[in-house]
Design brief:
Distance between the termini: 33 Å
Number of domains: 1
CATH architecture: Orthogonal Bundle
Helix content: 55-70%
CATH superfamily: Winged helix-like DNA-binding domain superfamily/Winged helix DNA-binding domain
Strand order of the largest sheet: 1-3-2
Order of helices and strands: HEHHEEH
Number of helices: 4
Shape: elongated
Length: about 120
């Protein structure tokens, strides 16, 4: 496997993880970009922080794939904000992504636990 190919695979994994986090966050209800970022940060105990340079391209990509949709609304302080919501297709995709994530967790756990046993 070429070095650039390994790098691309890493980026895809990160994008896929961010996609899962966004879809899961929107499962709880429509949110604007800052609200999504804030929810991810708070729900991860301040461990995961998504900057706007990663969040908005991901939101645009998910919208293009029809996993989320958006509408312009006026906020309480009279500013126009774009609010994102999960679509029916997005809900199905979330189920698939959660299943893949659980498989990944199980596989990683198997490897890490085996490594831990051999260190003992």
């Amino acid at each position: 496997m070429a070095k650039t190919e390994r790098y691309q695979n890493r980026i895809e994994l990160l994008q896929g993880t961010l996609d899962l986090l966004i879809l899961q966050t929107l499962r709880w209800g429509p949110q604007h970009g800052y609200g999504i970022s804030h929810a991810i940060r708070m729900d991860s105990g301040d461990v995961l922080q998504v900057d706007t340079g990663s969040l908005y391209p991901a939101l645009h990509r998910l919208e293009k794939q029809k996993w989320i949709a958006s509408d312009w609304k006026t906020s309480d302080n009279k500013q126009r904000i774009k609010v994102y919501r999960l679509t029916a297709t997005g809900k199905k995709r979330l189920v698939q992504e959660r299943s893949r994530w659980e498989q990944m967790q199980e596989a990683m756990g198997g490897i890490l636990n085996k490594a831990k046993e051999s260190e003992s």
